[in-house]
């Protein structure tokens, strides 16, 4: 050892050790410079550009021509294959390892004898270990180069991809690898980091510092004996164990791979293959290593495109090294999908994991999603899952979430044991700093003595690296650090449970992310398709399930098509697609999937409906009510020239034909719940509507409402006849009117497509320039309407039809927008004549309340919130609801209720939301509560209109299904996954109270059995203590508030 102990300045001593392993400084004389001591060029490089992402066996049959290091390849998204010919020099026979070093400044894949061996990228996985190649002989292998980086090909992370980028092949060479140097580098790095990150109040920090300093003194660069001596010093330090009460960190390898984001779905398939093959290769050398991996869709891609790799994964799953988690089809958005979509994420996810791995996931895994619905705990528990992991709330801008390990409680009271890894990251480098951050960041100290640490590069970064595993090997039991073990999520949660959960805190309701609230609105087209197709698939399933009960139609349920459509819809719910935070190419791919679903589903719906009607010569119009309550509504029959169907004359018993402004025949029908009805059977009595034009305004009136509308389409007054009051408190100053369009500046701090900041509210600009003044459009007994057209700017405009139907409790706004703005946010607002400190918002299978004030930082952070089909603000006895057919962004401040319509961010898609849009919203004042006044039902009606089609007499009259309590909604009727003679019915309590309900059906059902959302029968077949029994034509149920109930209905 050194004879002279110098006075140690901490910074100098530390930096000296850092420079000794630096890969930037002094590499000619330091230890890092000796990691790859020898290098030599390969024999030859051959190249072939291919047209697409083609399979290996096809690529190698192509013509390859000679190329060399230094050349560039492109353009963006192209694929180039290389054959590398090499011979390992005989003089290297005694070397630890020979590797192929590669840098194409892009992502790449190594193929070894037809086997996908490993991913390569310039940042984390720069070389490939050449095992089993005898020295002195010629060998070859293939490398598939993808012309994109880890994060696509944009500038500054989220910039749109540059389509003409090229990628330089800057390194292809053989190198030797010195294992002893690698080990010593990681000893030194660990000690340096302990000295740096353990607080100075802890003497362990200085012990690490002096230990590493002495090691640097011992080392003579180039002398392996000195390395071994230095390693012994380190090992002595690392062998000093921590106390028995210390914290345990459960380290888990992970690679968060976005299913599409700054690159298309097709590239994700290869990203998975690269990262997962890299991980399997690491597992061969590190038997302790555990890798946690989610998203059934990604496994399915690899199963289809890389069956050999998938088989290796399957074996690794059996050994509990490769750990499937999540239980969902993709890591979906946590706000926007419907309740049934959430259910299907788990149904398709868990069934996939059961089928291929014979195991279900017990951990819901959603580390990167932009907020979490308050209905998720119940759905998660219904999917057979107890635990939940995320970390995204650490991104909240305003408030720090107070827990790391806690009970998350949903709107129905269901609870999931939940953990936020305290390092606030799903892709750490497993450095000492991350480990210490985990201990320090645990917000439940004294209650929980375990935490999760996730490590590994995501998004094609290849997952964990050998450096990360080397770090973890050193810190298993080291005084000054927590105990660190390679673990799994279930091991972690079981450790928490074993220590006792009585002391854990609860968080009730949504996990609201105070960031990324623009994702409720961005890429409106995706949101519109999502909403529309959720209802469409529901209707297809309902109609074809009814067919199951008809002997001639059995066996015709379109299971394969429905599976395919659902999987497409679920894929597009991925957390960078439906939220709108992806590049243009992804939007185009998603729209293509949606269009295919729409085409197939419309055809299947019509086929299913026609099949329910008996063959009869006499044709007429029929109407199908897909919802579980009776509804009276004005329908429009197609014009004869538009569609082959019965002539108007054949629509008998419609006394006087009423036509709308487009020449379509209007009929008021009253249809039983979930039933088919001939239009001629219409017996609804008409209370006529009327339109009155006066100076400066037009009045639209029906039996419920009187709307006074000005030339700009602004509703100056909306009189509710029953309540005898106005729904709006309008004010000229600042243009506070009902249906006032407003434009806001929308320039976030960084995350363009994602974020709308609170300060946008300070830039409100009412839109007050008419193209033409309001015109009367429909003026008949059943419908009155007016048309307006407004300039948003010289490039953008709004055209709107405001209509009121006979019997309808709401005023409807059918809207078209031509939109060409830059960083502007369009909303529509309503100044309500209501005082309430809370507003209510529709969510999955229920609703929740949020404040209308800014009392606390938690309240004010919710300046833009998510809601589905409706939002409502009510005081005692009266309220106003705002319904919509495809929007999700809302805000209510004071008495102003706003619906978010369109944004115009430019990154990562510079064309986001540019062009034409169509959407509908409606305003519904009501007496009593929103529950009693039918807001929920009307919102369903607006989203799921009566289906009108030409056909003949149905098999039977009456309701296929109905329920006698308006609090209970039948959401889903589908064929059971595993039994062609069983229908699954899913219903829920929608009002937020206990509900008794009788479900009746005209179908011949012999037995009803309660099941979970995976369609597994519940062992005791009881609902809140009551046995489920199908008696005669009905079953009685007793539901708890917001309870979701699934039943297996066995057909006779
Ligand atoms: Zn992500």
Task: Describe the protein.
The chain is of the alpha+beta class and 1052 residues long. Helix content is 23%, strand content 31%. A 9-stranded antiparallel beta sheet has the order 35-36-37-38-47-44-43-40-41. It is elongated and about 100 Å long. The model is unreliable at 646-653 (pLDDT under 50). The structure holds zinc ion. Zinc ion binds at residues 256, 258, 368, 575. Pfam families: Alpha-mann_mid, Ams1-like_1st, Glyco_hydro38C2, Glyco_hydro_38C, Glyco_hydro_38N. One of its GO terms (biological process) is oligosaccharide catabolic process. This is alpha-mannosidase.
Give the overall pLDDT as a whole number. Answer: 95
Gap from first CA to last CA: 89 Å
Strand arrangement, major sheet: 35-36-37-38-47-44-43-40-41
Which ions, cofactors or small ligands are bound in this entry?
zinc ion
Structural class: alpha+beta
Which terms would index this structure?
1052 residues; alpha+beta; 6-stranded antiparallel sheet; 58 strands; 31% strand; elongated; binds zinc ion
Please write out the topology.
Blueprint: H1 10-20, E1 39-41, E2 44-50, H2 56-59, E3 65-67, E4 72-73, E5 79-87, E6 97-103, E7 107-112, E8 115-120, E9 127-129, E10 138-146, E11 167-168, E12 171-177, H3 179-197, H4 203-218, H5 224-238, E13 248-254, H6 265-285, E14 291-293, H7 296-305, H8 307-318, E15 322-324, H9 339-357, E16 363-365, H10 376-382, E17 387-389, E18 405-409, E19 415-419, H11 432-441, E20 450-455, H12 466-474, E21 483-486, H13 489-499, E22 506-508, H14 524-548, H15 559-571, H16 584-612, E23 620-625, E24 631-637, E25 658-659, E26 665-671, E27 675-678, E28 690-694, E29 697-701, E30 705-710, E31 715-720, E32 725-726, E33 740-745, E34 765-766, E35 769-779, E36 783-791, E37 797-805, E38 811-819, E39 824-831, E40 838-843, E41 846-851, H17 857-860, E42 865-866, E43 870-875, E44 878-884, E45 889-893, E46 896-902, E47 915-927, H18 935-943, E48 947-951, E49 961-963, E50 968-976, E51 979-989, E52 995-1001, E53 1005-1011, E54 1022-1023, E55 1026-1027, E56 1030-1031, E57 1034-1039, E58 1044-1051
Parallel strand pairs: 13-14, 13-20, 13-21, 14-15, 16-17, 17-19, 18-22
Antiparallel strand pairs: 1-12, 2-3, 2-5, 4-11, 5-10, 6-9, 6-12, 7-8, 7-10, 18-19, 23-27, 23-48, 24-26, 25-26, 28-29, 29-30, 30-31, 31-32, 33-34, 33-39, 35-36, 36-37, 37-38, 38-47, 39-46, 40-41, 40-43, 42-45, 43-44, 44-47, 45-46, 49-52, 50-51, 51-58, 52-57, 53-58, 54-55, 56-57
Helix pairs in contact: 1-4, 3-4, 3-5, 3-12, 4-5, 6-7, 6-8, 7-8, 9-15, 14-15, 14-16, 15-16
The protein binds zinc ion.
């Amino acid at each position: 050892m050194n004879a002279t102990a110098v006075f140690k300045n901490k910074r100098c001593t530390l930096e000296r050790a850092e420079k000794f392993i630096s890969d930037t400084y002094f590499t000619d004389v330091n230890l890092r410079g000796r990691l790859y001591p020898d290098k030599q060029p390969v024999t030859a490089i051959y190249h072939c550009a291919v047209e697409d992402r083609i399979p290996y066996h096809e690529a190698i049959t192509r013509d390859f021509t000679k190329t060399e290091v230094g050349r560039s390849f492109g353009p963006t998204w192209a694929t180039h294959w290389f054959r590398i010919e090499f011979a390992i020099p005989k003089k290297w026979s005694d070397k630890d390892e020979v590797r192929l070093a590669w840098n194409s400044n892009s992502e790449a894949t190594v193929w070894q004898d037809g086997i996908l061996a490993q991913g390569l990228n310039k940042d984390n996985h720069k070389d490939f270990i050449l095992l089993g190649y005898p020295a002195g002989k010629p060998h070859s292998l293939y490398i598939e180069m993808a012309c994109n980086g880890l994060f696509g090909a944009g500038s500054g992370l989220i910039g749109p991809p540059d389509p003409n980028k090229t990628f330089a092949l800057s390194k292809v060479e053989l190198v030797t690898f010195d294992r002893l140097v690698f080990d010593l580098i990681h000893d030194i790095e660990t000690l340096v980091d302990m000295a740096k990150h353990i607080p100075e109040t802890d003497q362990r920090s200085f012990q690490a510092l002096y230990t590493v300093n002495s090691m640097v003194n011992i080392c003579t660069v180039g002398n392996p004996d000195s390395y071994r001596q230095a390693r012994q010093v380190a090992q002595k330090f690392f062998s000093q164990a921590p106390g028995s009460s210390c914290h345990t960190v459960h380290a888990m390898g992970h690679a968060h791979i976005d299913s599409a984001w700054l690159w298309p779905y097709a590239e994700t398939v290869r990203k998975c293959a690269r990262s997962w093959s890299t991980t399997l290769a690491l597992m061969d050398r590190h038997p302790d290593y555990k890798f946690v991996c989610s998203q059934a869709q990604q496994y399915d891609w690899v199963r289809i495109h890389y069956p050999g790799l998938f088989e290796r994964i399957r074996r690794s799953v059996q050994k509990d090294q490769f750990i499937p988690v999540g239980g969902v089809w993709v890591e979906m958005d946590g706000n926007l999908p419907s309740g049934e979509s959430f259910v299907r994420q788990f149904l398709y996810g868990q069934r996939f994991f059961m089928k291929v791995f014979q195991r279900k996931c017990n951990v819901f895994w959603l580390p990167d999603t932009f907020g979490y619905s308050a209905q998720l705990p119940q759905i998660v528990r219904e999917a057979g899952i107890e635990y939940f992991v995320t970390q995204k709330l650490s991104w909240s801008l305003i408030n720090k979430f107070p827990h790391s390990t806690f009970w998350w409680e949903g709107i129905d009271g269901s609870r999931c044991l939940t953990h936020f890894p305290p390092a606030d990251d799903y892709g750490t480098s497993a450095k000492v700093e991350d480990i210490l951050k985990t201990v320090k960041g645990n917000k439940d100290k004294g209650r929980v003595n375990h935490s999760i640490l996730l490590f590994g590069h995501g998004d094609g970064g290849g997952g964990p690296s050998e450096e990360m595993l080397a770090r973890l090997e050193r810190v298993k039991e080291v005084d000054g650090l927590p105990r660190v073990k390679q673990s799994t999520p279930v091991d972690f949660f079981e450790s928490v449970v074993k220590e006792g959960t009585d002391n854990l805190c609860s968080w009730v309701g949504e996990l609201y992310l105070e960031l990324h609230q623009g994702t409720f609105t961005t890429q409106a087209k995706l949101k519109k398709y999502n909403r529309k197709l959720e209802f469409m698939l529901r209707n297809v399933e309902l109609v074809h399930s009814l067919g199951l009960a008809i002997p001639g139609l059995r066996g015709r349920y379109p299971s394969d098509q429905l599976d395919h459509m659902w999987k497409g819809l679920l894929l597009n719910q991925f957390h960078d697609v439906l939220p709108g935070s992806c590049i243009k190419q992804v939007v185009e791919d998603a729209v293509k999937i949606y269009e295919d679903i729409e085409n197939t589903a419309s055809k299947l719906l019509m086929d299913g409906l026609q099949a329910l009607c008996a063959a009869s010569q006499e044709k007429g119009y029929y109407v199908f009510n897909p919802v579980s309550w009776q509804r009276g509504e004005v329908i429009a029959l197609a014009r004869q020239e538009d569609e082959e169907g019965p002539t108007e004359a054949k629509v008998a018993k419609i006394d006087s034909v009423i036509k709308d402004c487009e020449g379509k025949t209007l009929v008021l029908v009253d249809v039983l719940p979930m039933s088919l009805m001939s239009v001629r059977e219409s017996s609804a009595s008409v209370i006529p509507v009327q339109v009155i034009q006066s100076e400066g305004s037009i009045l639209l009136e029906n039996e419920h409402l009187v709307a006074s509308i000005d030339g700009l389409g602004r509703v100056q007054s909306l009189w509710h006849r029953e309540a005898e009051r106005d729904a709006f408190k309008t004010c000229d100053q600042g243009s506070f009117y009902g249906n006032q369009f407003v434009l806001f500046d929308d320039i976030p701090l960084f995350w363009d497509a994602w974020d709308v900041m609170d300060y946008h509210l300070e830039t409100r600009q009412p839109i007050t320039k008419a193209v033409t003044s309001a015109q009367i459009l429909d003026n008949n007994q059943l419908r009155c309407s007016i048309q307006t057209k407004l300039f948003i700017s010289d490039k953008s405009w709004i055209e709107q039809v405001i209509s009121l139907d006979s019997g309808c409790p709401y005023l409807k706004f059918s809207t078209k927008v031509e939109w060409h703005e830059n960083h502007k946010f369009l909303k529509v607002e309503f100044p309500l004549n209501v005082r309430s400190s809370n507003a209510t918002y529709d969510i999955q299978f229920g609703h929740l309340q949020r404040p209308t004030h800014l009392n606390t930082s938690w309240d004010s952070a919710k300046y833009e919130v998510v809601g589905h089909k409706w939002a409502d603000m009510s005081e005692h006895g009266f309220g106003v609801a705002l319904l919509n057919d495809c929007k999700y962004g809302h805000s209510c401040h004071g008495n102003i209720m706003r619906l978010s319509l369109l944004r115009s961010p430019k990154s990562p898609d510079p064309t986001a939301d540019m062009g034409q849009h169509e959407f509908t919203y409606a305003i519904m004042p009501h007496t009593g509560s929103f529950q009693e006044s039918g807001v929920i039902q009307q919102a369903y009606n607006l989203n799921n209109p009566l289906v009108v089609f030409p056909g003949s007499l149905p098999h039977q009259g009456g309701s296929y299904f109905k329920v006698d309590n308006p609090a209970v909604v039948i959401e889903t009727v589908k064929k059971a996954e595993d039994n062609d003679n069983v229908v699954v019915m899913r219903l829920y309590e929608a009002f937020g109270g206990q509900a008794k309900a009788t479900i009746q059906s005209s179908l011949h059902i012999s037995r009803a059995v309660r099941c979970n959302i995976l369609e597994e029968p519940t062992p005791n077949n009881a609902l809140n203590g009551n046995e489920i029994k199908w008696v005669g034509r009905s079953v009685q149920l007793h539901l708890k508030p917001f309870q979701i109930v699934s039943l297996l209905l066995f057909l006779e």
